[in-house]
Specification:
Blueprint (H helix, E strand, L loop, with lengths): L1 E4 L2 E4 L31 H13 L3 H6 L1 H15 L7 H18 L9 H17 L4 H4 L11 H29 L10 H10 L7 H13 L1
Length: 220
């Protein structure tokens, strides 16, 4: 199959058909090199896929987090039952974010009506808007240095915020692991699983890759 978009000539055949065209905005913080969604099929992609398959999408993992999902849905119900005006968009986004963050980190990213909710909502909406905006650079790569629509610059800012947040959460978990006693309850989330993997002697998973895995799962 021969396809030409702008000045980009694409010839796909056999295994290459399983790859995706990598948008310029996904190059923010080199996310395209550490994202399961954007990596080409290869050893690194297979490693991330195996981690997600074995530690995220298993039946046991979904069942163990059922209580968290019910709790967030109950909070959504309570928000709409107190006879006050409700911003449906905010409630839906906050509920979705907290469902994701409790699964990944056992914490809530935001609370209804809080500044943190507004900031996180703005960041996620910004990334979604960028992802849905046609970018001239993807069709005319010669424009990369100019970034005429400013989409890459915006993506750098939003992705930087999220990666910083994930790094802070990871640092806090590592600190708590270092000072906690053996009687402290063990976290049952993806962060703990991945930190355990990193600490294994033959692990080839880095902390930087960890952040990009979180970003892939949060933005999806």
């Amino acid at each position: 199959m021969y396809l030409k978009l702008g000045t980009v000539q694409t010839i796909k055949h056999d295994q290459i058909c399983s790859d995706r065209t990598v948008a310029h905005t996904t190059h923010a913080a080199n996310h395209h090199k550490g994202s399961l969604a954007w990596l080409p099929v290869g050893n690194k992609w297979r490693k991330f896929r195996r981690i997600c398959k074995e530690h995220m999408f298993t039946v046991d993992k979904l069942q163990s987090s059922e209580g968290l999902r019910k709790e967030k849905l109950q909070q959504l119900h309570e928000c709409g039952s107190n006879r006050r005006v409700v911003d449906i968009e905010e409630v839906a986004i906050v509920t979705s974010l907290n469902l994701i963050s409790t699964t990944l980190f056992s914490i809530d990213f935001s609370r209804f009506g809080s500044d943190s909710a507004q900031e996180m909502k703005s960041t996620i909406k910004g990334l979604m808007t960028i992802a849905g905006t046609p970018n001239l650079v993807d069709y005319f790569p010669i424009l990369k240095l100019i970034d005429p629509q400013g989409l890459k610059s915006e993506s750098d800012a939003y992705v930087g915020k999220l990666l910083t947040t994930f790094d802070q959460i990871t640092s806090e978990r590592l600190r708590s692991m270092g000072v906690s006693s053996s009687d402290s309850p063990r976290k049952n989330d993806l962060l703990q699983v991945l930190l355990d993997l990193i600490q294994e002697r033959d692990s080839d998973l880095s902390r930087d890759e960890l952040k990009h895995l979180f970003l892939s799962n949060s933005s999806s």
